[in-house]
Design brief:
By secondary structure, this protein is of the alpha+beta class. The protein contains 5 helices and 3 strands. The chain has a 3-stranded mixed β-sheet with strand order 1-3-2. It is globular. The model has no long low-confidence stretch (mean pLDDT 94).
């Protein structure tokens, strides 16, 4: 299961690409509400993992203007990984 895989890998963070991934990890909020904001996912039997939701790459192909938001999210991710 996804929880088992996360527990085995033990990531410092997870980047949720797209609304389906964000909802699976963070619940029912829409991507527009949670994009760029750190959330948390706690897999069964493992410690909580920070989750950063952002747009799916296919969305960037459909709407190149979204690249600016994703770039901001990736800079935020870099800062988190460096801390």
């Amino acid at each position: 299961s996804l929880d088992e895989q996360i527990a085995v890998v033990g990531p410092k963070v997870i980047v949720a690409l797209g609304e389906a991934a964000a909802r699976a990890l963070l619940g029912e909020a829409s991507l527009g509400q949670v994009r760029g904001q750190w959330g948390s996912y706690t897999p069964r039997g493992a410690a909580a993992v920070k989750v950063l939701p952002t747009f799916h790459p296919a969305a960037l192909l459909r709407d190149p203007a979204l690249k600016r938001d994703v770039w901001t999210d990736m800079k935020n991710l870099k800062k988190e990984l460096e801390s």
